[in-house]
Design goal:
alpha/beta; Rossmann fold; eight-stranded mixed β-sheet; 14% strand
C-alpha cells in the first residue's frame, strides 16, 4: 500500500499541549511536508507555549517567537534575508492561531498578501483565544460559549471568512483544511510548498478544553465540521478559481456536531435551527463559486 503521508517525524515528543490538542496534530503534519529546511515565526498563541521552554524545542526547526501582530511581517523579513543570501529553497512559515490571524495580525497579513511575499501563512483555527483563557475571537462561530461570551450572552454574528478576505488579494493560493482529513491537508501543504508567492492555509484544529469536548473526539469533531458544511473544504487559486476538495454527499445535521461539545449546550431548538439555516445558505453561496 502506497503511503500518502510522509513517514518522517520532524516534531519531537515532549510538547506542552493539552491532551487531544488539534493544533499539535496540525504542526506535526506541516513539518512532515516542509522538512528541516524550514523556519517558523510564531506569535503569542497556544503554540508559543506548546513548543516548550528554551533551550528545548518540540518543533525541531528554527523558530522565532514574535509579537502578537507580527507573524506575517517577521516571516516576510526572514524570507527576504534568505533570498539576499541566495538561500531561496528555505521554507519560511508563519504559524498562528485565529486570534493572531483573524484579529490582531490582520494588517500585517494583508500587507504580506498584497506584496505577494513568498511565505506560507498557516492559521490553526480553534475558534477562540485559547492560550489566554478561551476568549471569543472573530473566528468564534455564532452561538458558541466562551469566557467573554457566556451562556446568556453567547457569541452572536457569523465567523469571519478569512479565506475570502485573503483570496480578494488575488494571491496564488488560499485554502481550508482539517486535521480530520490529513491526506487532503498533506496535499495542500505540498502545493503551498511548491508555489511561489503568498499562500494561506486555514486549518481547523479543535481544542478539547475550549470546546468543552473529550480529547478522544478531536478528530471526530474535525471530520464532523466538514460533514455538516459548517467548515467546507475548498481552495482558491489566484483569487479566482474555486476548487472543491472534499464533497459531502449527504450533509449531516449540525446537531450531530454540537452534541459532542459543551460550548453549544445552552442553545435552544429555534437557535439551532437558525444556525442550520445559515450554514445551508452559506454553503449554497459557496457552491455557486466552485468549479
Amino acid at each position: 500500500m502506497r503511503l500518502t503521508i510522509p513517514e518522517q517525524e520532524i516534531m519531537k515528543p515532549g510538547h506542552l499541549a493539552c491532551q487531544g490538542c488539534g493544533a499539535t496534530m496540525a504542526m506535526r503534519y506541516a513539518l512532515k511536508v516542509f522538512d528541516r529546511d524550514t523556519v517558523l515565526t510564531i506569535p503569542a498563541c497556544c503554540w508559543a507555549v506548546i513548543d516548550g521552554p528554551f533551550p528545548y524545542t518540540a518543533v525541531n526547526v528554527p523558530l522565532f517567537h514574535t509579537a502578537f501582530e507580527t507573524a506575517a511581517i517577521m516571516a516576510s523579513g526572514i524570507k527576504a534575508g534568505f533570498d539576499a543570501l541566495g538561500k531561496t529553497s528555505t521554507n519560511v512559515v508563519a504559524w498562528a492561531g485565529d486570534g493572531g490571524t483573524f484579529d490582531i495580525g490582520m494588517a500585517a497579513i494583508s500587507g504580506a498578501a498584497e506584496r505577494n511575499d513568498d511565505i506560507t501563512y498557516i492559521v490553526y483555527d480553534n475558534e477562540a483565544y485559547m492560550n489566554t483563557g478561551i476568549q471569543r475571537s472573530s473566528a468564534t462561530p455564532h452561538g458558541a460559549w466562551t469566557t467573554t461570551t457566556p451562556v446568556k450572552h453567547y457569541k452572536r454574528g457569523p465567523k469571519k471568512n478569512m479565506v475570502e478576505i485573503i483570496a480578494a488579494h488575488r494571491v496564488p493560493y488560499t485554502t481550508t483544511a482539517s486535521i480530520g482529513y490529513p491526506e487532503d491537508f498533506i496535499k495542500k501543504l505540498t502545493k503551498a510548498k511548491e508555489t511561489r508567492g503568498f499562500k494561506l492555509i486555514h486549518v481547523l484544529a479543535p481544542c478539547p478544553t475550549g470546546w468543552k469536548a473529550e480529547p478522544k473526539y478531536t478528530v471526530k469533531l474535525a471530520k464532523l465540521a466538514v460533514q455538516t458544511n459548517i467548515f467546507p473544504i475548498y481552495e482558491v487559486e489566484d483569487g479566482i478559481r474555486y476548487i472543491q476538495n472534499i464533497k459531502v454527499k449527504q450533509r449531516k445535521p449540525i446537531t450531530e456536531y454540537f452534541k459532542y461539545q459543551g460550548r453549544f449546550k445552552h442553545l435552544k431548538d429555534d437557535e439551532v435551527e437558525f444556525i442550520q439555516k445559515k450554514i445551508d445558505e452559506d454553503y449554497e453561496i459557496l457552491l455557486k463559486k466552485l468549479s
